[in-house]
Fold this sequence. Notes:
alpha/beta; 20 helices; six-stranded mixed sheet
Amino acid sequence: MTSKVSSPTEQADEAVVGEQRKPPGAKDVRRLDRVIIRFAGDSGDGMQLTGDRFTSETASFGNDLSTLPNFPAEIRAPAGTLPGVSSFQLHFADHDILTPGDAPNVLVAMNPAALKANIADVPRGAEIIVNTDEFTKRAMQKVGYAANPLEDGSLDGYNVHPVPLTTMTVEALKEFELSRKEAERSKNMFALGLLSWMYHRPTEGTERFLRTKFAKKPDIAAANLTAFRAGWNFGETTEDFAVSYEIAPATKAFPVGTYRNISGNLALSYGLIAASQQADLPLYLGSYPITPASDILHELSKHKNFGVRTFQAEDEIAGIGAALGAAFGGSLAVTTTSGPGVALKSETIGLAVSLELPLLVIDIQRGGPSTGLPTKTEQADLLQAMYGRNGEAPVPVVAPRTPADCFDAAMEAARIALMYRTPVLLLSDGYLANGSEPWRIPETDELPDLRVQFAQGPNHTLDDGTEVFWPYKRDPGTLARPWAIPGTPGLEHRIGGIEKQDGSGNISYDPANHDFMVRTRQAKIDGIDVPDLEVDDPTAGTDRAADTLVLGWGSTYGPITAAVRRLRNAGESIAQAHLRHLNPFPRNLGAVLKSYDKVVIPEMNLGQLATLVRAKYLVDAHSYNQVNGMPFKAEQLATALKEAIDG
């Protein structure tokens, strides 16, 4: 879905309830500036699809939004259990927002497990829509409810709406020749219709989606459409929902342009395709499926019309081996994985460092170690990206900060890889990969020119006057070696993992040459041109200048920025900076750090960036860490940063 919006503004990430109005014959309509909705149920209840459809309609309406899908690692987790709960949280607003929200204003709980797993996050006074059909004695005992929470008074502080979703869905579909079990599967569409009525969401896109998705099963398509419309009609007619809500489009939140809702993995895929087009090179992906990176393989496989070639290998090592071979052959080569796969790919990444060929290694980080938490987020691969290879094998590291920013980060990683002839590690994570937000579709003339010049002929003259090709004769500005396409007459040269002689590329065991090559490869990475770090500090140069800097990287950008906004709205002085380039660091980073008395680094690990900063700049940076598989909450960070300011 796309929508057009106008000029930007900066607003606090807070909710305001507006006036009620009641047209003749209609229910009350209350205007809000934002709302946070969480759909929760069994992993087979279709909560991710429900949330995705609600998000798509919200994007088409023009709201700013941010999402947080949260689901089990099992393909079909045990039904009715706490570990099997799947949820989807959506925060949408009429202004610029940064996170999926700390706590839902509305919880849709499809069963007792969904209620129990999520009730701790729901503030008093919030709306809870409960599917009463699932609150059987056995289902409640399975999750530890001694009494029915809908009847024992434990939910008295909430606005509870008991709705027999399953029964009403089956009743709405009685005209179809479906079994009860088949009819029950549409209860998520009934819930989606009800919420679409409550928040005045468009419906055309969802109806079109259902017709397309079930085009080969017209009865199923018709049943889902009927359930969706029944949910809408129930909201319109029932006395239990006396109020509906309006959240106006975010007409002042963004620059003028055409926008669409996009997830991090989709943005990354589009960024890779755009980079290949701007480089005028075929895109080759060698990959092995792994959560949460597999969506990139799925998406790129759809775009053969752009010269994209995808290879699903038998394992991680084969995937990167094929990609490195494609790089040798002149392609923009990519391999995608998560942390466990990076470990398996490490030797071939070291080979790419030695061969000095462009290769993009996309790491969608997840909770570890080992198999760990495959569907949960973490930022714990930074030190692996920096040092997780044998020998001195420096690799540039780039990290996007939002789902939409994954597009630009992919373009930047490609720029570095192609210009400097090096593998590049891009560190996204599960939060960015699966989350979504509005993205302004760029014009093609806004994209950088990434075209490269392949070696055309001999580049060195021997003492006897013979002209030869030296594969390791470097560009004096970038220290990049020439890129020669195999089969080009006169450009024959060796490749392999054994150390090469400077210039000629012959095998060399000479100690002095090895020392020189190691230092040269490091100097090439250290010399990569990256922008200076920008600091957001509105108090700089005033008598209220901030003495505390909060420094982040990757997906902590949204929670950090939301927390900083809250503190500034409360009258606090605090500065913020966010790193995209983690190797090499921006050249001004040391000076920025030393200009503040206190530096706080929030990370979803045990302090990996803080370790690097302390070691390189001898700055007493303070860590604030979380490794629970979930992103930071803005209020949580604001409290921690306030303590740092006051400490």
